[in-house]
Amino acid sequence: MSKYRKNVGIVVFNHNRKVLLCARADKKSNQWQFPQGGIDNEEDIIDAARRELHEETGISSVELVATILEPLRYDFPKQIFKNFLKKGSPYVGQEQFWVLFYFCGNDEEIDFCTNPQEIEFKAYEWADIEEAPKRIVNFKKEVYQKVVQNFAPYIQDKEIQYG
Predict the structure, then answer these.
(1) What is the dihedral of CA 36, 39, 40, 42, to 10 degrees?
(2) DSSP structure class, residue 40
(3) pLDDT by residue (tens digit) across 41-81?
(4) Phi/psi of residue 94, nearest 5 degrees
(5) Which of 56, 58, 101, 153 is most solvent-facing, going by the fewest CB within 10 Å?
């Protein structure tokens, strides 16, 4: 068994070429991130990304644009690792595969209460993708920089027509 939990990270951008950043509901400070979540057994990365995106944000009106299929890893800080260990989780960090979607819906589709027992986010905003690494917690910063490096060209490509 891997020491890293298999996870999918999801970047969603709109017709203004802005990405969806979400404020975590479980944190007192304003911690912003992209939607993400675990990959179930027998589930492929795209299916996991669509499921997690819908569970966390209510969004389902998306078109696949790109993926990062080489896992990007980060280790949990000591305190987070200790909390997971107390809950019986053997993982030292996460191994993330990334998916880039174009959002072809409208903002009314965004709903953080699809599962009231597990609300992940409390707010969202549309921002330039370069903002994401500046607003993420430090231990995920390197992964976010690689995501920006990989996905920014797709988002900024003026030749591509979305929607």
Answers:
(1) 150
(2) P
(3) 899 999 999 999 999 999 999 999 999 999 999 999 887 77
(4) -125, 145
(5) 153
